[in-house]
Amino acid sequence: MSQNAAVPTARVAPAPLPLRELLPWALFAGVVLLGLLYLVGLDQGATSLVPGSLIHEFVHDGRHLLAFPCH
With 80 as the cut, is the pLDDT of residue 17 above it? Predict the structure, then answer.
């Protein structure tokens, strides 16, 4: 058995992230998530931004998995 004593290490706290640096990324993520929510949950029929049923068929199973009605 070794007789080495545990060497205490100093903990360095991470620097706080200023809100003005975080806010643009949070807004970008929010816009992207709202766009995905629209494409998966609401893009069908009369409110469709993309003509045809390509988006609907592409996200059809995900729509049912997330409990969005589509029929």
Answer: yes
